[in-house]
Amino acid sequence: MNRRKKIEELKHSFSDEKKFVDTGYYRIRTLDEQSIEMAYLVAGSCGETIVHPQITILFDEHKTIGITLIDMLASPPKFLHRDLTNEQEIDLELDALIEKFSHAAIIIKKQN
Question: What is the C-alpha separation between 43 and 20, in angstroms, rounded?
């Protein structure tokens, strides 16, 4: 299954509102008709939530790609905007995040 289809499936389980599943919070936020933001967030020591990571995803006719990545829990924190030097890293992080969301969606289905 391609990235776009997987993300469309995940939208049935996640929305703009943070949803706690197992060890963290999950959110899929629609930015506009062609882009969304997927974020996995963990609880910080002061009650805040920390993105680990948050990826902005662009849908076009031919592909689905991560265009920005923010990870505040990484050391040092990551702030990446897609270019030739980091496109592979962003793609790997996006695939890992989709997989993480897929596992959380399975947990949600088992709980219902």
Answer: 10
Judged by DSSP in three states, 1 sits in: coil
Residue 91 gets the label, from left (phi > 0), alpha (psi -120 to 50) or beta, of alpha
Query: Which contiguous run of DSSP H or E holds residue 7?
Result: helix 3-10
Domains: count for the chain: 1
pLDDT one-digit tens code per residue, 32-77: 999 999 999 999 999 999 999 999 999 988 899 999 999 999 999 9
pLDDT digits (tens, 9 = 90+) for 3-12: 999 999 999 9
Provide the residue range defining the domain that includes 97. 3-111
- Rounded Cα gap, residues 56 and 112, in angstroms: 29
Q: How far from chain centre, in Å, is Cα 98? A: 6
